[in-house]
């Protein structure tokens, strides 16, 4: 009896973990046209810290082969760019377009972890801006949109949160074309 109970609990825990990976609230994925990025390449994302977004650990890595790095979603700020799990992504105005580096270093990365991928060619649904990557100091691939690195905000804890919008007058959401959204409501 104890052996069967333990196996049953393990299966129940696994099912709960896998079910949680597919849930999304707060943002609504925007319709994508077939002409936007390819959505069949393999890609996985990692936030660098678990407080910035749902963790991309082993439970979700099996889904990475069909996942995209970015997608468009509706929010109070309009159509924005989010990661595959619906977490909002931000530009840092102190970054230099096409420089190949990030201006957010050291303690900045605690509050603004980079969107990283394991793919050499990030993919997107509904995002029309040019995708790329830069190499972080620790050797990871940070996703860029129109030559600008993308970041999470640590205080955004669930899909749909946009608390980083306008923080310090230097952090802004992106629209699907890769333009900064500066007119939306300000963050802290």
Characterize the main sheet.
5 strands, antiparallel
Write down the Rg: 17 Å
Global mean pLDDT: 74
Number of strands: 12
**Spans of at least 5 consecutive residues with low confidence:** 2-66
CA distance, first residue to last residue = 54 Å
Q: Beta-strand percentage?
A: 15-25%
Look at the helices and sheets and give the structural class.
alpha+beta
Number of helices: 3
The ordered string of helix (H) and strand (E) elements is HEEHEEEHEEEEEEE
Shape: globular
Helix content: 10-25%
Structure, described:
- The protein is of the alpha+beta class and about 190 residues long.
- A hairpin with a 2-residue loop joins strand 3 and strand 4 (about 80-85).
- Strands 2, 6, 8, 9 and 10 form a 5-stranded antiparallel sheet that branches. Strands 1, 3, 4 and 7 form a 4-stranded mixed sheet that branches. The protein has a 3-stranded antiparallel sheet with strand order 5-11-12, with no helix packed on it.
- The protein has helices at about 1-20, 60, 110, and strands at about 30, 45, 70-75, 80-85, 90, 115, 125, 130-135, 140-145, 150, 170-175, 180.
- The protein contains 3 helices and 12 strands; from the N terminus they run αββαβββαβββββββ.
């Amino acid at each position: 009896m104890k052996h069967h109970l333990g196996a049953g609990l393990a299966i129940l825990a696994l099912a709960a973990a896998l079910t949680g990976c597919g849930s999304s609230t707060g943002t609504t994925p925007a319709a994508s046209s077939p002409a936007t990025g390819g959505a069949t390449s393999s890609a996985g994302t990692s936030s660098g810290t678990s407080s910035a977004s749902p963790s991309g650990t082993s439970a979700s890595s099996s889904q990475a082969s069909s996942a995209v790095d970015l997608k468009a979603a509706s929010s109070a700020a309009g159509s924005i760019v989010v990661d595959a799990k619906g977490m909002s992504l931000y530009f840092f105005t102190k970054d230099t377009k096409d420089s190949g580096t990030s201006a957010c270093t050291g303690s900045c990365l605690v509050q603004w972890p980079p969107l990283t991928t394991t793919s050499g060619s990030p993919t997107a649904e509904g995002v029309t801006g040019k995708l790329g990557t830069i190499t972080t100091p620790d050797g990871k691939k940070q996703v860029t949109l129109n030559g600008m690195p993308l970041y999470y905000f640590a205080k955004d804890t669930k899909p749909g949160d946009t608390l980083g919008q306008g923080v310090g007058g230097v952090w802004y959401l992106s629209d699907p074309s890769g333009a900064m959204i500066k007119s939306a409501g300000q963050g802290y």
